[in-house]
Fold this sequence. Notes:
- With 419 residues, the protein is α+β, with helices and mostly antiparallel strands.
- The protein has one domain (33-417).
- The protein is 14% helix and 16% strand.
- The protein has five helices and ten strands; from the N terminus they run H-E-E-E-E-H-H-E-E-E-E-H-E-E-H.
- It has helices spanning 33-51, 160-168, 174-180, 323-339, 394-398; strands at residues 81-82, 122-125, 131-135, 153-158, 199-207, 219-226, 237-252, 261-267, 348-356, 369-370.
- Strand 7 (237-252) and strand 8 (261-267) form a beta hairpin.
- The longest helix has 19 residues, at 33-51.
- The relative contact order is 0.16.
- This is Cytochrome C.
- It comes from Dyella choica.
Amino acid sequence: MAQDKPAIAPPPLPVLTPQIPLEISVTGSKPTLASLQYDFDVFSWQSFIALNWPANSDGTPNTNLTIGQAPNDPVVWQSYRESRSIFLAGGATPAPWGEDTPPPPVCRNIDAGHLPPGTLRLTQVGKTPNVLDESGEPFKTGPLIDQNGQYTRFSIMTNQSMFNYIVTNKLYSKAGQQAFNADANFPSSNATSQQLGSIMIKTAWVKMGGKYDPAKFYTTYALVYDNPEEEPGVKPSCVLEQVGLVGFHIGHKTQDEPQWVWSTFEHVDNVPTKGHASTLAAYNFFDPHCKNCKVNDPPPRPWNPGNRYTKPSQVERIIPITAEAQQLNESYHQALAAAVPDSVWLNYELVSTQWPTDAKSKTDPTGVPAPSFLANATLESYIQGQVKQTSSSCMACHNNAASTTGNPSDFTYLLQRAQ
């Protein structure tokens, strides 16, 4: 009689920790491109978990809680500084770390004493929290219109290491950049010294209500500001709104990756993948019932986030999420569910991680990125694809970034915002 084969134990679930990783952990003695992609994807998930950990009032992780508990309380990255509070009118000195910059005047009629903790000011209709003041995607490719006919809002945040470098070198003003007159070189994370380096966070948000159920999103309250400096014809307006997270992009400069590590996450219901059957009855940025909608086509001008209704965008993912990334997503979802069964973070997935395969390349300053292209469907909706110099590639694009003096700005376009 044949003996039963011993049961094979399932692989252990990933450990959820509030510690932001400082460098990738290489698995295997002979790493391959595929195994290193896995290692960088794990780095991305570890970063996502730590940055979205419940926070204390000073922005440090609350180690009495785990991710997914207190689901709508502030998380770690929300203590970071939004770009609008660093690059001020007239090149003024930003407030010290930990102090807030007053919101735009039109927002000040909203009683600050009644703002919920962690309130963002969403002024970008392309990228920002605290005040969401941006409604257009990078390089004026166009705004992203949600299924309620409203503009998606964006934010860009920096951590303290990056903020301190900007302030210490007075890179927040054109005059300061002229006096600095050198290439920017932001601090890198260093695993040996246990020093956290520079991190940028870009986020995308939709207003709750209508076709969006707040229970399915990480939500916060935001001052949603229509910024007249963004597009001609926009009138200043500010409304306190509950908003839900739909896109999350991390840039992290590490010692071994001076071109930064680029990690991009999305809400699982954002969009279907081109060439694949639609699996959901409703998406955040796609209508399966619309037969004549132009796909990945920006709305016609004029662009005005103050419009009461704009025809929704019809967005598909061009480059599929790989099977390996999907498997890793499932592994982290299982770990999140084991910690908090109804965790809101089960609704978010890694799209991919872009990293330099040859950081010291003498011929390619971008470090020979892998994968060659990377796009977040909410942040680069209209420049997805695999066309060199045209389609979205974090490292190829950000390699062109410069300050107002023309000096290279170390893979960030933020210094161009200086006045």
